[in-house]
From TrEMBL:
<dbReference type="InterPro" id="IPR050464">
    <property type="entry name" value="Zeta_carotene_desat/Oxidored"/>
</dbReference>
<dbReference type="InterPro" id="IPR002937">
    <property type="entry name" value="Amino_oxidase"/>
</dbReference>
<dbReference type="InterPro" id="IPR036188">
    <property type="entry name" value="FAD/NAD-bd_sf"/>
</dbReference>
<dbReference type="GO" id="GO:0006783">
    <property type="term" value="P:heme biosynthetic process"/>
</dbReference>
<keyword id="KW-0560">Oxidoreductase</keyword>
<dbReference type="GO" id="GO:0005737">
    <property type="term" value="C:cytoplasm"/>
</dbReference>
<keyword id="KW-0963">Cytoplasm</keyword>
<keyword id="KW-0350">Heme biosynthesis</keyword>
<feature type="domain" description="Amine oxidase">
    <location>
        <begin position="14"/>
        <end position="465"/>
    </location>
</feature>
<feature type="transmembrane region" description="Helical">
    <location>
        <begin position="7"/>
        <end position="24"/>
    </location>
</feature>
<keyword id="KW-0285">Flavoprotein</keyword>
<comment type="similarity">
    <text>Belongs to the protoporphyrinogen/coproporphyrinogen oxidase family. Coproporphyrinogen III oxidase subfamily.</text>
</comment>
<dbReference type="InterPro" id="IPR004572">
    <property type="entry name" value="Protoporphyrinogen_oxidase"/>
</dbReference>
<keyword id="KW-0472">Membrane</keyword>
<dbReference type="GO" id="GO:0004729">
    <property type="term" value="F:oxygen-dependent protoporphyrinogen oxidase activity"/>
</dbReference>
<protein>
    <recommendedName>
        <fullName>Coproporphyrinogen III oxidase</fullName>
        <ecNumber>1.3.3.15</ecNumber>
    </recommendedName>
</protein>
<keyword id="KW-0812">Transmembrane</keyword>
Length: 469
C-alpha cells in the first residue's frame, strides 16, 4: 500500500478554513489516501470573523459582509448548509462627509469615478473648478506608464486632486485603510488601468465596462449588492468547522518552524514541543507571521517591510428616540481633509435591519488608517468619547449609547504598496525552488476581501493536490 500523504494547513482564519474544507472534501470524494490537519494558534477558529450577540443585537467585530457578484463566498455558505441564512443589505443612499456636510454620493459613481454626467454636475461635493478638472479626463490622452504606479498618481492625473480627495480616496480608504499615494494600482484595481488603456478616458472606460444592473423583481428592488448571514459571519466559521473531521483540528497551538525532513517532506515544530510531518504545507498567515517562520530566508524577510494598518470598529447601540434619524441612507465615509477621527460610519439598523431590535439604533464606526493609527491604542472610554463627539457633529444624539463595543485589529489591513505583485510572485517562486510543496495564501497576498481569501484557499487546494499527486 502506498504511504498516506499528509497535508498541514497553518492558520484558521477564513483562508485556512476554506483550504482545509475543500481539501478534505476532494480527498473524501476521490477516496485519496491523505490526511489533512489544520493548526490554529488561538483557541478559536475564524480569525477576524467574530460576532457578538447582545440584548437582541447581532454585531460584527470584524468584516460584516461580502460582494454578491464574487460568487465564492456565497457558494461556500450554501455548501455548508447556510443557504437560508444569506441576506442582502438594504439598498440606500451613501454619503460623503466633506466640508462639515453630508453629501449624497453622486449616482453612477463607480469607486468615485463618474459614469453619469448629470449627478456629477449637480452635486455640491465639488467646486466648479474641481468638476472641470475631472471632465478633462474626457479629452486627456491615456497614460504611458507601463509598470505599476500608485492609485493616487493614477487617479489624480485623470480626475484631479479635488475629486480624488473628496470621493475616490474616502471610498478606497474604506476598503484598504491605506494611503492611496502608496497603494499599488495593479494589485488593487488593475481594471481601472485596463479601462483607461482601452478607451483612453477613464470615465468613458468605466461607463462602457460597468455592467448595467439587472432589473430587480418587486421583492428584490430594495436589495443592495452585499450579502451577509442572518446569524452573523461567525456562523459560517462554525458551519465549516462542523464539516471538518474533528481530529484534524489543532487549536491553541502555534507552528514555530518548518524544516526539511531528511529529504522526505517537512517537519513542523510546535510551541508545545510536539511536531507534525507533512508532505505539503499551506501557510494561511499574515505576512509578518510568515516572515517569522523563516528568519534566515532573505527573500521572505522582505515581507517585514510590507506595512499593515491597525484599525478599530466601534459599535454603539441607542434607543431610537435618542437619535434624530432624519437621513434616508445607510451610512457615510469621511473625506481625509475633514477634521474627524472616524473614517466611516454605517447606520447598521438601516443597512442590515435583521441585526437590530425594533425601537433601537445601531451605529458602527471605524477609526484608524495609514498615518492615523494611534487612536486604536486608546482606552475603550477614550475611543467612545472621540467617536461620540464626531457623531454629534453629523446627527442629533440626545443620550449616551446603551452600550459600546470596541474591537481593535492590530496590523490587520495589509498594504499592497507599489510593486506588490512582483514581490509576491518572487516569494512564491522562492518557495517553489527551495521548499516545493509549501504554498502561501491569505489577505496579505492576492486580495483581502472575503471572496478573495476564499478564492486563494481554493487555489491552494489545487496546488496541493497537483503536488502530492
Amino acid at each position: 500500500m502506498e504511504d498516506k500523504k499528509k497535508v498541514v494547513v497553518i492558520g484558521g482564519g477564513i483562508t485556512g478554513l476554506t483550504t482545509a474544507y475543500y481539501l478534505q472534501k476532494t480527498i473524501q470524494k476521490e477516496q485519496m489516501s491523505c490526511d489533512v490537519s489544520l493548526v490554529e494558534a488561538s483557541h478559536k477558529l475564524g480569525g477576524k470573523f467574530q460576532t457578538v450577540y447582545k440584548d437582541g443585537f447581532t454585531i460584527e467585530r470584524g468584516p460584516d459582509s461580502f460582494l454578491e457578484r464574487k460568487m465564492s463566498a456565497q457558494e461556500l455558505a450554501i455548501e455548508v448548509g447556510l443557504k437560508d441564512e444569506l441576506v442582502n443589505n438594504t439598498a440606500g443612499r451613501a454619503f460623503v462627509l466633506a466640508n462639515e456636510k453630508l453629501h449624497p454620493m453622486p449616482k453612477g459613481a463607480v469607486m468615485g469615478i463618474p459614469t453619469k454626467i448629470g449627478p456629477f454636475i449637480t452635486t455640491d461635493l465639488f467646486t466648479i473648478q474641481g468638476k472641470m478638472r475631472a471632465a478633462a479626463d474626457l479629452v486627456m490622452p491615456r497614460s504611458n506608464v507601463s509598470g505599476d504606479q500608485s492609485l493616487g498618481r493614477f487617479f489624480r492625473r485623470r480626475l484631479g486632486d479635488e475629486v480624488v480627495e473628496n470621493l475616490v480616496e474616502p471610498l478606497l480608504s474604506g476598503i484598504y485603510a491605506g494611503d492611496i499615494d502608496r497603494l499599488s494600482l495593479m494589485s488593487t484595481f488593475p481594471q481601472f488601468y485596463h479601462a483607461e488603456q482601452k478607451y483612453r478616458s477613464l470615465i468613458l472606460g468605466m461607463k462602457k465596462t460597468t455592467p448595467s444592473a439587472p432589473p430587480k423583481t418587486v421583492s428584490a428592488k430594495n436589495q443592495g449588492i452585499f450579502l451577509t448571514l442572518k446569524g452573523g459571519l461567525e456562523s459560517l466559521v462554525k458551519a465549516i468547522e462542523e464539516k471538518l473531521e474533528t481530529d484534524s483540528i489543532i487549536k491553541g497551538t502555534r507552528v514555530v518552524s518548518i524544516t526539511e525532513n531528511d529529504g522526505n517532506g517537512y517537519k513542523l515544530m510546535l510551541n508545545n514541543g510536539d511536531s507534525l510531518d507533512a508532505d505539503s504545507v499551506v501557510i494561511a498567515l499574515p505576512h509578518f507571521a510568515l516572515a517569522d517562520l523563516f528568519p534566515d530566508d532573505s527573500v521572505i524577510q522582505e515581507l517585514k517591510d510590507m506595512p499593515a494598518t491597525s484599525v478599530a470598529t466601534v459599535a454603539m447601540a441607542f434607543n431610537a428616540e435618542d437619535v434624530d434619524d432624519h437621513l434616508d441612507g445607510t451610512g457615510f465615509v469621511v473625506s481625509r481633509n475633514s477634521d474627524y477621527t472616524i473614517t466611516a460610519c454605517t447606520w447598521t439598523h438601516k443597512k442590515w435591519p435583521h441585526t437590530t431590535p425594533e425601537g433601537k439604533v445601531l451605529l458602527r464606526c471605524y477609526v484608524g488608517r495609514a498615518g492615523e493609527e494611534t487612536v486604536v491604542d486608546l482606552s475603550d472610554e477614550e475611543i467612545e468619547k472621540i467617536v461620540l463627539a464626531d457623531l454629534k457633529r453629523t446627527m442629533n444624539l440626545t443620550a449616551k449609547p446603551n452600550f459600546t463595543i470596541v474591537s481593535r485589529w492590530k496590523q490587520s489591513m495589509p498594504q499592497y504598496t507599489v510593486g506588490h505583485k512582483e514581490r509576491i510572485d518572487k516569494i512564491k517562486s522562492n518557495f517553489k525552488e527551495i521548499m516545493p510543496g509549501v504554498f502561501i495564501a491569505g489577505s496579505s497576498y492576492e486580495g483581502l476581501g472575503i471572496p478573495d481569501c476564499i478564492d486563494q484557499g481554493k487555489a491552494a487546494v489545487e496546488e496541493v493536490l497537483q503536488y502530492i499527486s
